[in-house]
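Annotated sample (chain length 213).
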Amino acid sequence: MVKIAVLVSGGGTNLQALIDAERRGEIRGGELALVVSSSAGAYALERAAQAGIEAVTLPRREYAARGDYDRALIALLQSRGIGLVVLAGFLCVLGPEMVAAYRNRILNIHPSLIPAFCGDGFYGLRVHERALAAGVKVTGATVHFVSEITDGGPIVLQQAVAVREDDTAESLQQRVMREAEWKLLPRAVSLFCEGRIAVDGNRTTILQGGNEP
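Output written by the structure step:
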């Protein structure tokens, strides 16, 4: 059984999607074992408490000055036997030490179809604002492994979402979450825990399993 840690900074809607999926039996081979928040006031901590998941606050600001946030995070994860790290609205950039320690074991959900509207500075509503400004007809979400390049790791899953003529950044954000993020992330986590994601360089392959095609 793969122990999963979810890293959060805010409300934790993607964390809730994972909690709900686990309750439905949709995360096979894994269990949500730890929630780590970069903010003591994050509502995601309350979601974790309600679900009976251990929650720890690791404030980025307190460690950043000493330059040892990665080491503190790695020590915490290793002490809990964590095998998979999931970034779910985690607004801190992981350093190379953390990426190396959990190479191809850190999944992130990004609210666009990478390589569109991604990289440094693209997060939250900014992504959807840029999508609308560009006039695209289709956007979506991407689950990918984390590498040293922001949003540049191997892609695992993507889901397209249509852009409507009357969309605002807020309405588009909500629809991308409902139609893509909350479905893709639990699916990718389950695939990892089942050992069905093969990584070769910057490419991934989903291996056939069970009765699935």
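Annotation: The helical segments are 13-23, 44-51, 60-64, 69-79, 96-101, 125-134, 169-193.
Annotation: The chain has a mean pLDDT of 95.
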